[in-house]
């Protein structure tokens, strides 16, 4: 059954709030840790997340073509606080009447419903990225994970469209020794992550 626009916005809200929760768990000694996003520390990852929230918020209001709204903040001295404000901004924008029915400028024009789907799968992945950096387990309900997996399965897997300079790394096959693969692990591998390299330390 296809999700309604309201359901899609609510699932995105859950993913964003989970990302906020795990970012808020980072301590002063955690920000320079390497993250699952190659070459990015946790601080840089959260700067990217912050910029994406502001960019999507602008796109929901018809201003996504303004490149300045997608720039990472210069001041990331308080990453969790900065990210929290950006998350609130995008959730407010997506919650405005009619926003999901509009076209979003995301380096091209996309129906709002599809754009919110992009944001949803991104924040399932980024919530995991942050949790993995900290050695924690991400907490997302099955309906969020199922929706994210359905979207991830539609992301083009052509190697020519993956890797440096593109939104996602190449698809990763599950290792032969992997003991099953749930929807989160499958989504992560479809988006180029290797969850088995980031064990939970709790």
Describe this structure in words.
There is one protein chain. The radius of gyration is 16 Å and the shape is globular. The chain is built from six helices and two strands. It has one domain (5-197): Four Helix Bundle (Hemerythrin (Met), subunit A) (Up-down Bundle). β1 and β2 form a beta hairpin. A two-stranded antiparallel ribbon has the order 1-2. It has 202 residues and is mostly helical.
Number of discrete helical segments? 6
Number of domains: 1
Q: What structural category characterises the helix and strand content?
A: mainly alpha
The CATH class name reads Mainly Alpha
Rg computed from alpha carbons, rounded to a whole number of angstroms: 16 Å
CATH superfamily: dinb family like domain
Low-confidence stretches: none
Mean pLDDT: 90
Strand content: under 5%
CATH hierarchy: architecture: Up-down Bundle
Would you count the extended β strands for me? 2
Strand count, sense and barrel status of the largest sheet are: 2 strands, antiparallel
Q: How far apart lie the N and C ends?
A: 37 Å
């Amino acid at each position: 059954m296809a999700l309604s626009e309201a359901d899609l916005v609510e699932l995105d809200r859950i993913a964003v709030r989970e990302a906020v929760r795990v970012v808020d768990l980072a301590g002063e000694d955690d920000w320079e840790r390497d993250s699952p996003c190659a070459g990015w520390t946790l601080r840089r990852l959260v700067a990217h997340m912050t910029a994406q929230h502001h960019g999507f918020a602008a796109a929901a209001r018809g201003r996504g073509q303004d490149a300045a709204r997608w720039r990472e903040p210069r001041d990331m001295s308080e990453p969790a606080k900065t990210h929290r404000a950006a998350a609130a901004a995008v959730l407010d924008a997506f919650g405005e009447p009619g926003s999901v029915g509009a076209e979003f400028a995301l380096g091209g024009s996309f129906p709002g419903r599809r754009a919110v789907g992009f944001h949803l799968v991104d924040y399932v992945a980024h919530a995991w990225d942050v949790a993995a950096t900290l050695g924690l387990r991400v907490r997302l309900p099955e309906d969020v994970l199922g929706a994210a997996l359905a979207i991830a399965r539609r992301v083009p897997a052509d190697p020519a469209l993956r890797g440096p300079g593109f939104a996602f790394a190449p698809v990763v096959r599950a290792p032969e020794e992997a003991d099953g693969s749930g929807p989160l692990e499958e989504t992560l591998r479809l988006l180029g992550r290797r969850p088995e390299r980031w064990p939970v330390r709790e």
